[in-house]
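We read letters as residues; the integers encode the fold. Take this protein.
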Amino acid sequence: MNLTQEDWIAQLEADDNAVILDVRTEDECDEGIIANAINIDIHKGQDFISEIEKLDKSKNYYVYCRSGARSGKACEIMNELGFDNAYNLLGGMLDWDGEVVAP
């Protein structure tokens, strides 16, 4: 499900079962991440799938990338793997105006 930044933040803040997932490359993450995000690079192909499969499917995942394209794809993959709640941040880090922290 695609969410605007406002909806993504509002839903995330009200969610006691949330995990923030950054699917960018390590180099991109070095420029700053959303606080408490875990990084699993979608460009790693099968390794990405393997890492995603280790995650708790009962959690709610708030997924982002640079522009929203890769995170949208990541949400599709997660849905195919049995994750019911994966939320894509529309516009990604390019449109993010919230806090950014060092990884």
